[in-house]
Design brief:
By secondary structure, this protein is mainly alpha-helical. The chain contains 15 helices and no strands. It is globular, with a radius of gyration of 21 Å.
């Protein structure tokens, strides 16, 4: 179990390393590219809105949803898994020219979706997670590290989810509701659920004197199992209409027709609601076992707890959506802007510090990054719930806070990500 949970650098003999280290390990280019892209997403969205990119293959809400999920989030996941995978297996993950090729493939995907070259964009975007799965899988197979084959499978499933999005957009398949998007989000939720269960209790106990973050086997199984159940429900097309409509940009669908469809499918809706309630309770209980109230003096730890708190909130809001109490957008953004945004910025700071031999202590720049991302999520989720008339202002304010947080990360961490470790060790 120790090797499963270790993500810090293994002990190696110090030796002279090239000064330029961007291509030595996966977290370096992908954290940098992801943070720059997150900061640029607001100006790109504005250019689309102003009609300056009116020939884009993906545009509007579909572009936004696709790029935040399969662009930003996937880049961070791949960077993390390449870095952790080397420690899990003791084998090299892509570096050097192989890592350059993967980064170029990811970057090509971001550019191509803004061009009219639809088929090329689809092929390149689906190829990226498959190539990443191959790079990670080779290391795990070489080491016989079967317990982590799970992550290779998830990368392949993310490629499948992305393929469904593009197949529907290109009219190769008749897929109403863009099922690839909710399935992709469920997969990312599953990845966060598994990884948080491994690292948050460990980081809490290591970083907070006197903390006794614990795990309960039944709560762990229920938390993970409920997310798997949600994934299966959504993959089978049983998710509620507003959830898929929001993700696919079909925001103008007739509300009365949606309500009628839900009444006609009451049994699947009841099953979904039951799973959401169980998932909400399990994830909230899991967080309480980690003792978030003990972490206030260690920002590198409390950001992970604050990020994870968005998961039970997302599940509760999605249950409220199933009951018709709230719109789907707050639940979606509690997961994306809240859980994904905050958990990625937290892991990007901690793992970048650990693997570049910097102190495992958040500085004032890190705290500003955390605060901006968390505030952006709160504005995007809470304001439309309590003051619907201010939704446009909430969207703009949230986007600016998100952009500022990741721009600061890119500026602050770029020198560390590009330069060799000061202790002379590789990585």
């Amino acid at each position: 179990m120790a090797t499963l949970m270790t993500i810090e650098e293994p002990a190696r003999a110090a030796r002279a390393q090239p000064a330029w280290a961007l291509w030595q390990l996966g977290f370096r280019p992908f954290y940098l590219l992801a943070s720059i892209f997150a900061a640029l997403s607001v100006p790109l969205w504005a250019l689309q809105y102003a009609g300056w990119i009116d020939h884009a293959y993906l545009r509007g809400p579909l572009w936004h949803a696709h790029e935040m999920l399969f662009g930003y989030a996937l880049a961070v996941i791949v960077g993390f898994l390449f870095t952790a995978g080397r420690n899990w297996s003791g084998q090299p993950t892509p570096s050097g020219r192989a890592l350059q090729a993967l980064a170029l493939l990811w970057l090509a995907g971001r550019v191509l979706v803004l061009t009219p070259w639809a088929t090329a964009a689809a092929l390149v975007n689906v190829a990226f997670p498959l190539a990443a799965a191959l790079g990670l899988g080779r290391a795990l197979v070489a080491a016989g590290n079967r317990r982590n084959y799970f992550f290779v499978g998830l990368l392949v499933l993310l490629a499948v989810a992305q393929a469904l999005v593009h197949a529907g957009q290109l009219h190769w398949l008749d897929l109403p509701g863009a099922p690839g998007l909710p399935a992709g989000l469920d997969l990312v939720l599953l990845i966060m659920t598994v990884m948080a269960g491994r690292v948050v209790p460990m980081f809490t106990n290591n970083g907070v004197p006197g903390a006794a973050a614990g795990r309960n086997v039944w709560i762990e199984r229920t938390a993970v199992g409920s997310v798997v159940a949600l994934l299966l429900i959504d993959a089978l097309g049983r998710a509620l209409g507003p959830w898929q409509a929001d993700l696919s940009g079909q925001l103008a669908r007739d509300a009365a027709a949606l309500q009628g469809a839900q009444r006609g499918a009451w049994l699947p809706g009841l099953v979904l609601l039951a799973v959401l309630v169980v998932a909400t309770v399990a994830h909230a209980a899991r967080l309480l076992l980690w003792q978030p109230w003990t972490t206030g003096r260690n920002p590198l730890v409390w950001i992970l707890h604050a990020a994870y708190a968005w998961i039970p909130l997302h599940l509760a809001l999605r249950a409220a959506t199933a009951l018709g109490w709230v719109a789907a957008a707050p639940a979606t953004h509690a997961l994306t802007a809240g859980a994904i945004g905050a958990l990625t910025i937290g892991m990007m700071t901690r793992t970048a510090r650990g693997h570049t031999a910097r102190p495992l202590r958040a500085d004032r720049y890190d705290i500003v990054c955390y605060s901006a991302v968390l505030a952006g999520a709160a504005v995007r989720v809470v304001v439309p719930l309590v003051w619907p008339a201010a939704q446009v202002h909430a969207v703009l304010g949230s986007a600016l806070l998100w952009s500022a947080g990741f721009a600061l990360y890119a500026w602050h961490y770029a020198p560390w990500l590009c330069r060799a470790r000061p202790d002379g060790r590789p990585g």
